[in-house]
Amino acid sequence: MGQGLASLICGTAISSQYLASDFQVNTPMLQSLLHYTLLCVTYTTMLSCRKGDGNILQILRRRWWKYFLLGLVDVEANYAVVKAYQYTTLTSVQLLDCFVIPVLMVLSWWVLKARYRTVHYVAVCICLLGVGTMVGADLLAGRDQGSTSNILLGDGLVMLSATLYAVSNVSQEYTVKNLSRVEFLGMVGLFGTAISTLQMVILERSEVTNIKWSWQVGLLFTAYALCMFALYSWMPVVIKLSSATSANLSLLTADLFGLFCGIFLFQYKFSALYLVSLVVILIGFITYNAVPTPTNPPTSASSSSSLSEEGYYENPAATESNFTQGEAEAKREEEDEKQLRREQWETMERKTSATGSSQSAEDEEPAVECSTKL
Q: How much is the pTM?
């Protein structure tokens, strides 16, 4: 499944390459807006149709600001890595983009309480060695493309993007394993659409108006949006079955898939080192997953409430509260009944003392019968 995600990333890269090279279209925020809109229409609508605690209004009321920050992080991560190509080379982007792996491991250790073993660190080093082999093949083939206008700024943007991606993926792992995949995608789609729309109007207004629309351009935009929508939809599934670190290790082959496609589509030069790089990355990935990573998840959230995959809460505390409330009502009814008996008995005694001793024998028998009935 991870290699399927890598092929989807390859599809986004090819469509973006065609838009930039053949049609001079460079609008990353417009492209992001399209797939965020698809997420919003699909998953946010699903949240709106739910009832109870899984409804979108209840989710927004409890933790809207968290999902707003998560949407902002996700949008800016996508924007920073695309912007970096204007200032640095393709080689720098491919190398520094791997910075997401150590950041993910640190955040997973801190936030998700993941505990790594020696074999995991060795496997990550093997994967990074495979990436280095791929970059070396690019240099030998003369594919050191990109700008060198401000390398320091470009490299900083790549590392910023990698850090933001790590934060987004760790948050995604926590959400899909403790709450719901639909909730995560619905909230990211909602806030991502709003943020990317605002950012596109501010930063890309002139570029969007200068696009020369044709059916080819529309088809490329559609292909990019569908690939990103499928990537965002299935990424939580892979993360839930494994981990954010494991999923990102499997995505290291996306650049290789793009190179293989570029050999046929963009006349890239083939190098045997590409195959070596693919084998090395896959060996490291398999080694990493051969040994599970034990975790010590926090129990505070799960002790109070739990949320199923469909997004509905089961709150045992509320159920216990209902039982306690029912017992209190029964006790109050019993106390009222005892009070009523005492009042009736006192009334009978007052009547007996008022009528005198001559009628006490006659009143005592009905009083006994009344008491027996009560």
A: 0.72
